[in-house]
């Protein structure tokens, strides 16, 4: 999965600032679905300039059939999703190379 294959979406915070994210993975935990997303900084040409922090978002279905995302609400839920993300990274070398700098991959 190269940078050109990443799904990008934009969230606007309470202050009206836009934040761009890429979807790295989708995790299902029981009846819930999560997207593991990394914030990205875009240049004026719309290309990824820099990668930032990784966040889990719960994916929910809206009444109209569309999807929306919400932040993970509890610390317990956050820990479960984080553990599932870590397990996915240990199994998926291509994904691990995408999110971890090479100097951290063998620590």
TrEMBL record:
Pfam families: DUF1292. It comes from the Bacteria. This is DUF1292 domain-containing protein. It comes from Pseudothermotoga hypogea DSM 11164 = NBRC 106472.
């Amino acid at each position: 999965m190269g940078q050109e294959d990443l799904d990008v979406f934009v969230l606007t915070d309470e202050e009206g600032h836009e934040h761009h994210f890429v979807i790295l993975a989708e995790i299902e935990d029981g009846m819930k679905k999560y997207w593991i997303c990394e914030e990205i900084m875009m240049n004026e040409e719309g290309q990824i300039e820099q990668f930032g922090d990784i966040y889990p978002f719960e994916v929910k279905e809206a009444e109209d059939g569309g999807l929306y995302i919400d932040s993970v609400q509890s610390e317990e839920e956050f820990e479960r999703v984080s553990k599932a993300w870590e397990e996915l990274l240990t199994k998926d070398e291509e994904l691990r190379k995408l999110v971890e700098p090479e100097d951290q991959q063998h620590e």
